[in-house]
UniProtKB/TrEMBL annotation:
Keywords: Membrane, Transmembrane, Transmembrane helix
Organism encoding this protein: Xylanimonas oleitrophica
Transmembrane segments: 20-41, 98-119, 131-162, 168-193, 205-225, 281-304, 311-330, 336-353, 365-386, 392-413
Protein name: DUF2029 domain-containing protein
């Protein structure tokens, strides 16, 4: 190897200076402002495609304020009870659709700012992880501010960052998130599986989770919800495969040669679904498979934590990532915004992973960025060509879904490897 010369020093100095600027407080603030300015302006450009669901949120809130008839309290709803809070809040301070959308977007950006601030403060690699988080949000695109998933994704990240030092608070945050949209419940499963002792499980997981749930359900029951407090868990049963879901990939690809495969608009739930008995059979099988997959992952994480107590924080991050991926891969819904769920565990891992696990997260970090970018191409950039069955877009969607499966397999593989590894030697043993 040729010795380094003095000519290399200016280049190294420049790289060091740029790195210092990027990782500085002002560098991160600038990155946050630029990233979210682009995301918000792009969301406004797409308007209906991005804010269609937000308009529906506004209708629910305005109708509740006008007539006193509320989702969950007076009729079944597709979201858990606590989703009423972020859905109603913008309507309390606005009088029109544009203003509602502006306040909604500002709320999501504020939650992203909180998550980024906590991430950047996490030693020793929080600021590097913060830049990855910003890249992930840009790659995913405007859908990250146009759905309830934009509310729960930063809550997932906050709960994972709190997990090591304040597990009870982490469970409380994740449980509240799960009562807004179910996905953050995966963090609760991971924390329960990796609790060191039974008393930790009861004190740090069961108690705070139960407390938050009792408050949410209690308020819903006090408002007259009755059995509707749990209605969300039965709202998805009649659905078939959403067109872009992972499980619909084979049907989507088959459109390239089989005209009998039909994707049609469901005007009751405002989404495109694969039609036919085969699709309905797959969708029905996924109802039980999804629950079984999350429970099995919890057991695998439990085994890994017991076998390798020296790396429990890494097991927690792997378990959370695997469970969140399973909620996408085995889900018959599979909306594009679900990908927002898998950025938080990767960002937290880049900041917190132990010395032996840091290199393991580099490939999935790149893979998640690729999946996020492909998701933005799928929706909103080329959703029309996808629905029309244009080969190039069918291929992009299929590769995106294969990427999600590969990421899940990789997380399960790492958990399994830890579960089957040798126990570390006890201190002082020979």
């Amino acid at each position: 190897m040729a010795p380094r010369t003095g000519a290399d020093r200016p280049a190294r100095s420049t790289v060091t200076a740029v790195r210092a600027v990027l990782l500085s407080r002002w560098g991160l603030l600038t990155g946050f402002v630029l990233a979210h300015t682009w995301i918000v302006l792009d969301a406004v450009t797409w308007r209906g495609q991005i804010f269609g669901d937000v308009t529906l949120y506004e209708w629910w809130a305005r109708e509740g304020l006008r007539s006193g008839l509320w989702p969950v309290l007076d009729y079944d709803w597709v979201y858990p009870a606590a989703a009423l809070v972020p859905v109603t809040a913008p309507a309390l301070v606005t009088a029109g659709t544009v203003a509602y959308q502006a306040v909604w977007t500002a709320g999501v950006v504020a939650l992203d700012a909180l998550a980024l601030w906590m991430l950047a403060r996490t030693a020793p690699r929080g600021r590097v992880a913060a830049w990855w988080w910003l890249l992930f949000l840009v790659a995913l695109g405007p859908i990250s501010v146009g759905r309830l998933d934009g509310v729960v994704a930063p809550l997932i990240l906050v709960s994972l960052l709190l997990a090591a030092r304040r597990p009870a608070v982490a469970v409380a945050v994740a449980t509240l998130g799960a009562w807004i949209k179910v996905a953050p419940g995966a963090v609760v499963v991971a924390l329960a599986a990796t609790a060191r002792r039974r008393r930790h499980l009861l004190r740090d997981v069961v108690a705070p989770g139960a407390l938050v749930s009792v408050v949410v359900v209690g308020l819903a029951l006090a408002g007259g919800a009755g059995e509707r407090a749990w209605s969300v868990f039965g709202q998805q049963e009649a659905r078939t495969l959403q067109a872009e879901s992972v499980a619909a990939t084979a049907f989507s690809v088959a459109r390239l040669w089989d005209p009998s495969v039909v994707i049609a608009y469901n005007d009751e739930i405002f989404t495109y679904e694969v039609q036919g008995d085969a699709a309905r059979a797959v969708a029905g099988a996924l109802d039980g498979t999804l629950v079984a997959a999350v429970l099995l992952l919890g057991l695998l994480a439990w085994a890994a934590a017991r076998r390798r107590p020296d790396v429990v924080p890494d097991v927690l991050l792997l378990a959370a990532a695997a469970a969140l991926l399973a909620l996408i891969v085995f889900n018959k819904v599979g909306s594009p915004q679900f990908v927002a769920w898998i950025g938080p565990p990767v960002a937290a891992a880049l900041a917190l992973a132990g010395p032996g696990a840091r290199r393991l997260w580099s490939p999935p970090a790149l893979g998640v960025l690729a999946v996020a970018l492909a998701t933005q191409v799928l929706y909103p950039l080329a959703y029309g060509p996808f629905l029309a069955g244009e080969p190039w877009m069918v291929a992009v969607a299929a590769l995106r879904n294969v990427g999600l499966v590969v990421l899940l397999v990789g997380a399960v593989w790492q958990l399994g490897r830890l579960a089957l590894s040798e126990r570390p030697a006890e201190p002082g043993s020979r």
